[in-house]
Amino acid sequence: MEPKQIREGYLVKKGNVFNTWKPMWVVLLEDGIEFYKKKSDNSPKGMIPLKGSTVTSPCQDFSKRMLVFKITSTKQQDQYFQAAYLEERDAWVRDIKKAIKCIDGGQKFSRKSTRRSIRLPETVDLGALYLSMKDTEKGVKELNIEKDKKIFNHCFTGSCVVDWLVGNNSVRNRQEGLMIASSLLNEGYLQPAGDLSKNAADGTAENPFLDNPDAFYYFPDSGFFCEENSSDDDVILKEEFRGVIIKQGCLLKQGHRRKNWKVRKFILREDPAYLHYYDPAGGEDPLGAIHLRGCVVTSVESNPEGKKSEEENLFEIITADEVHYFLQAANPKERTEWIKAIQVASRTGK
């Protein structure tokens, strides 16, 4: 009997020999993880057995890479994967842990961290707390804060976080709030912005999180960016990043010149409406941007040359300037979700 497939999608994987990071199509089965160079490949490039394995998330072995988790096999071999956004990482980790638990008959995973351990009450659900903090009406308010000739966009102070935890009755006092906030930081639900908070997170302070009005933090998928006093041209360039992120993830994109397909990480913002795409293996700067205001997006059943395509789940974006972009989702549901989200952004964004 074939093992049941639990989850599949694009993740960036670290190579075992050359230490390079490359996007892979990853399939989680009941007894292991298979990874393929391309989704259409028939044979996996490798397989990780889950019996006796452990999962470390967040994995802090790479200071410049966020959203990494590590799977350690019974032979003490480490496999590193990087997700495109926080909720995606948590979903993969949750399902992998559940699969391991089912195989090992209830073996409990103990998270290993390079930072000191913080003991939390069993009733505290950091994931649920994170979602409450992100609530647009009742959550922590994101601000644009100016300090030392820099503007920190879509962020908030450490004091605001602890104020919210106390005021929301999530904790009994500020000391307990500091402990919870430190755990949120350690788990990757919060990110430091600015030298003060970054130095504390790196271990130079007594606590990794600072209950301080001069310490800045942000949600990892909030659209945070920092800009220094610059020329008018730079300000215009930054304008397209001011929009709120409404969807993100990996898709296949066809190149305009060579017509080859590559995995790209896409971030959809509205008001202004832009779809930025990045190299999923690394790099903070986008490879390109699609201005969505006035665009048309539709599903397509044939390839860009007009022939019946062997590729499934294609869709096309035609910009107001009549530039055509062909993208491929992993499944019909994902394609529909992207089309609907882009349609909404194109109508509401600038």
From TrEMBL:
<dbReference type="GO" id="GO:0030845">
    <property type="term" value="P:phospholipase C-inhibiting G protein-coupled receptor signaling pathway"/>
</dbReference>
<dbReference type="GO" id="GO:0033625">
    <property type="term" value="P:positive regulation of integrin activation"/>
</dbReference>
<dbReference type="InterPro" id="IPR037371">
    <property type="entry name" value="PLEK_DEP"/>
</dbReference>
<dbReference type="GO" id="GO:0005080">
    <property type="term" value="F:protein kinase C binding"/>
</dbReference>
<dbReference type="GO" id="GO:0007229">
    <property type="term" value="P:integrin-mediated signaling pathway"/>
</dbReference>
<dbReference type="GO" id="GO:0005737">
    <property type="term" value="C:cytoplasm"/>
</dbReference>
<dbReference type="GO" id="GO:0006904">
    <property type="term" value="P:vesicle docking involved in exocytosis"/>
</dbReference>
<dbReference type="GO" id="GO:0002244">
    <property type="term" value="P:hematopoietic progenitor cell differentiation"/>
</dbReference>
<dbReference type="InterPro" id="IPR001849">
    <property type="entry name" value="PH_domain"/>
</dbReference>
<dbReference type="GO" id="GO:0070560">
    <property type="term" value="P:protein secretion by platelet"/>
</dbReference>
<dbReference type="Pfam" id="PF00169">
    <property type="entry name" value="PH"/>
</dbReference>
<dbReference type="GO" id="GO:0043647">
    <property type="term" value="P:inositol phosphate metabolic process"/>
</dbReference>
<dbReference type="GO" id="GO:0030866">
    <property type="term" value="P:cortical actin cytoskeleton organization"/>
</dbReference>
<dbReference type="Pfam" id="PF00610">
    <property type="entry name" value="DEP"/>
</dbReference>
<dbReference type="GO" id="GO:0030836">
    <property type="term" value="P:positive regulation of actin filament depolymerization"/>
</dbReference>
<dbReference type="GO" id="GO:0031529">
    <property type="term" value="P:ruffle organization"/>
</dbReference>
<keyword id="KW-0597">Phosphoprotein</keyword>
<dbReference type="GO" id="GO:0007200">
    <property type="term" value="P:phospholipase C-activating G protein-coupled receptor signaling pathway"/>
</dbReference>
<feature type="domain" description="PH">
    <location>
        <begin position="244"/>
        <end position="347"/>
    </location>
</feature>
<dbReference type="GO" id="GO:0032233">
    <property type="term" value="P:positive regulation of actin filament bundle assembly"/>
</dbReference>
<dbReference type="GO" id="GO:0032587">
    <property type="term" value="C:ruffle membrane"/>
</dbReference>
<dbReference type="GO" id="GO:0035556">
    <property type="term" value="P:intracellular signal transduction"/>
</dbReference>
<keyword id="KW-0007">Acetylation</keyword>
<dbReference type="GO" id="GO:0070493">
    <property type="term" value="P:thrombin-activated receptor signaling pathway"/>
</dbReference>
<dbReference type="InterPro" id="IPR036388">
    <property type="entry name" value="WH-like_DNA-bd_sf"/>
</dbReference>
<dbReference type="InterPro" id="IPR000591">
    <property type="entry name" value="DEP_dom"/>
</dbReference>
<protein>
    <recommendedName>
        <fullName>Pleckstrin</fullName>
    </recommendedName>
</protein>
<feature type="domain" description="PH">
    <location>
        <begin position="4"/>
        <end position="101"/>
    </location>
</feature>
<dbReference type="GO" id="GO:0060305">
    <property type="term" value="P:regulation of cell diameter"/>
</dbReference>
<comment type="function">
    <text>Major protein kinase C substrate of platelets.</text>
</comment>
<dbReference type="GO" id="GO:0043325">
    <property type="term" value="F:phosphatidylinositol-3,4-bisphosphate binding"/>
</dbReference>
<dbReference type="InterPro" id="IPR037370">
    <property type="entry name" value="Pleckstrin"/>
</dbReference>
<dbReference type="GO" id="GO:0070527">
    <property type="term" value="P:platelet aggregation"/>
</dbReference>
<dbReference type="GO" id="GO:0010572">
    <property type="term" value="P:positive regulation of platelet activation"/>
</dbReference>
<dbReference type="GO" id="GO:0042803">
    <property type="term" value="F:protein homodimerization activity"/>
</dbReference>
<dbReference type="GO" id="GO:0019211">
    <property type="term" value="F:phosphatase activator activity"/>
</dbReference>
<keyword id="KW-0677">Repeat</keyword>
<dbReference type="InterPro" id="IPR036390">
    <property type="entry name" value="WH_DNA-bd_sf"/>
</dbReference>
<dbReference type="GO" id="GO:0070495">
    <property type="term" value="P:negative regulation of thrombin-activated receptor signaling pathway"/>
</dbReference>
<dbReference type="GO" id="GO:0010920">
    <property type="term" value="P:negative regulation of inositol phosphate biosynthetic process"/>
</dbReference>
<feature type="domain" description="DEP">
    <location>
        <begin position="136"/>
        <end position="221"/>
    </location>
</feature>
<dbReference type="InterPro" id="IPR011993">
    <property type="entry name" value="PH-like_dom_sf"/>
</dbReference>
